[in-house]
Automatic annotation (TrEMBL):
UniProt record similarity statement: Belongs to the aldehyde dehydrogenase family.
Record-level Gene Ontology MF annotations: oxidoreductase activity
Organism of this sequence: Halochromatium glycolicum
Keywords: NAD, Oxidoreductase
Protein name: Aldehyde dehydrogenase family protein
SUPFAM superfamilies, A to Z: ALDH-like
Cross-referenced InterPro entries: Ald_DH/histidinol_DH, Ald_DH_N
Length: 279
């Protein structure tokens, strides 16, 4: 009799866990549906007669200007009157992004892999909806007015993310998902601004799926060429996720890259000190 009651209790707990998980997924999907059809693309009009564009940092769920107000500007305008500026990250911007990622970490890890998979599964549709914004970024990169080719770029990027999400491992069932402890720190990634999206997202999406929040820094070598396709794409992905889960910055490699490195080592030192104090 005792064994039967224990088995019934275990079965009841599994059913409760299942329905709670389904409710979480439903809320995640409803939140995605409630989002504006056209999220903020992250481009601002500069007050200049040339009508150029300005990319800011994406930190804590919103686009915001760099703390020091500095931007990278191309040395010469591109064809068709296109051009603009890209935010130039300093140590203060990187610290703000790391803080936002750290604050979002507990909720993102606690929601479970099934919910995170549902969140990531909505991203390709958001990319397709933002085909115009990606087309603008592509024209900025190439100085090409072939809009039909650029719109196909959004379809390719959406298919790329869809394929990566599809091959993510299946989420655990019921109480099995509580076996692994939640991550305690945000992941920090730095890459060249002209990196192929497939290379970055193959590393980025599995980290998000495992419950890590991210700070991604896109580095430019100089102001001679400022590719923005990856920056725009990351902005769309970040706006599709809960605030603080994905934070995107841009800057010069010799400046922002060093600041990110110092932030990484200082975070590790704080975590080590806290661990030693706890013991």
């Amino acid at each position: 009799m005792v064994l039967n009651m224990a088995a019934e209790d275990a079965g009841a707990r599994r059913r409760i866990d299942y329905w709670l998980e389904q409710a979480q997924i439903t809320r995640a999907l409803m939140r995605q549906c409630a989002m504006p059809i056209r999220p903020d693309p992250g481009i601002r009009r500069e007050p200049t007669p040339q009508g150029r564009f300005m990319f800011e940092h994406y930190i804590g769920g919103r686009w915001c200007p760099p703390v020091a107000g500095r931007y990278l500007r191309p040395r010469s305008a591109t064809e068709h009157g296109l051009g603009g500026s890209v935010a130039r990250a300093a140590a203060e911007d990187i610290a703000a992004a790391c803080t936002a990622a750290q604050q979002a970490g507990s909720d993102w890890a606690r929601c479970g892999r099934a919910v995170r998979r549902a969140e990531l599964g909505q991203v390709p549709a958001r990319i397709t909806a933002e085909a115009d914004a990606l087309a603008m970024a592509e024209r900025w990169n190439q100085g090409d007015s072939a809009l039909d080719f650029e719109l196909r770029c959004a379809e390719r990027q959406a298919a790329l993310l869809r394929d990566i999400v599809r091959i993510l491992p299946s989420p655990p069932v019921g109480r099995q998902q509580l076996e692994s402890p939640p991550p305690v720190s945000a992941a920090k990634l730095a890459c060249a601004a002209d990196t192929a999206p497939v290379e970055l997202f193959q590393a980025l999406l599995p980290l998000l799926y495992e419950g890590r929040t991210l700070v991604v820094l896109l580095l430019y070598r100089n102001t001679g060429h400022l590719p923005v396709r990856l920056l725009q794409l990351l902005g769309i992905v970040a706006a599709s996720l809960p605030p603080g889960v994905l934070n995107v910055l841009s800057g010069l490699g010799a400046e922002a890259g060093v600041a990110l490195m110092w932030q990484h080592f200082s975070t590790r030192a704080r975590n080590t000190a806290a661990s030693q104090a706890a013991h």
